[in-house]
């Protein structure tokens, strides 16, 4: 276990904010590609783009979660005033990943057969967009309002 702590602390405390922006951008882009694919049904470009972006979004969310655990390991004390907000921030992050994974699975299983955007996949990506927005809002509030994680 000690070796993991050493490896963990080879990464900077700021790794989470450096990585999480990929999740945010890719989630928004995936949902946009899904929306365009629903409108432009004759093109097979948008369903494929939607699928690929969802896959990248899942990977980026995993990376952001791991980076969050690393960044959290640098924090020695979490005050009772920010603890609930921090807990919700982490919950929304996990739920973002779940929604992206559901969207990816739905698009893979339902949408790609017909070369179109699956409505259930789009709705799950829309939920992921809302969730990542909430997580980002709470994360930004923690940093900029409460100076959480700032040495």
Shape: elongated
Total beta-strand segments: 0
What's the CATH topology label? Four Helix Bundle (Hemerythrin (Met), subunit A)
What is the name of the CATH architecture? Up-down Bundle
**Tally of helical segments:** 5
Number of domains: 1
Termini distance?
25 Å
Low-confidence stretches: none
Q: What percentage of the residues does DSSP assign to strands (E)?
A: under 5%
The H-and-E topology, N to C, reads as HHHHH
CATH level 1 class label: Mainly Alpha
**Mean pLDDT across every amino acid position:** 92
- Structural class by helix and strand composition: mainly alpha
How is the biggest beta sheet arranged? Answer: none
| Radius of gyration (Å) | 17 Å
Helix content, binned percent: over 70%
Organism: Alicyclobacillus sacchari
Protein name: Putative membrane protein
InterPro entries: DUF2231_TM
Transmembrane segments: 20-39, 51-71, 91-110, 117-138
